Amino acid sequence: MLLTTPGIGNILGLTIMLEVGDITHFENVGNYSSYCRCVESKKTSNKKKKGENNRKNGNRYLAWAYVEAAHHAARVCQKAQRFFQRKMAKCNRTFAIKALANKLSKATYFIMRDQVAYNADRLFR
């Protein structure tokens, strides 16, 4: 089912599947995205940055896999490309790729948990 996701081929699918193991270890999708290093680890107080919260926690191989999948999905999938272009208009390229990687990590969480095929309409509304 992971192979139905744009940007994820045989190698990235196997990497994700083997690095995650049992998906039920993660209570919700936010915990999984954080484990994949696809979310920001910023500590703020009174709208001022106070530091970084364990930015090296999580799995570096999953972070690599989702960034590679995001690069490929931005070239192949029309809806992913539009999402990427909207993010690029607001901020830099690195942030836009990480935002797309976060979207893909959330989609693959539900694909692995529920054993359903990828649906671009549900991901990019």
Detailed description of the structure:
It contains six helices and two strands. It has 125 residues and is mostly helical. It has one domain. Strand 1 (42-45) and strand 2 form a beta hairpin. The radius of gyration is 15 Å and the shape is globular. The chain starts with 9 loop residues before the first helix and ends with a helix.
Largest sheet: 2 strands, antiparallel
Strand order of the largest sheet: 1-2
Strand content: 5-15%
What would you report as the Rg, rounded to the nearest angstrom? 15 Å
DSSP E strands, number: 2
Q: Span between N and C termini?
A: 21 Å
* Helix run count: 6
Q: Which class of secondary structure composition applies to the elements? A: mainly alpha
| Stretches with pLDDT under 50, minimum 5 residues | none
Helix fraction by DSSP (H/I, runs of at least 4): 55-70%
Overall shape: it is globular
Mean pLDDT equals 89
Give, in order, the helices and strands. Answer: HHEEHHHH
Tally of domains: 1
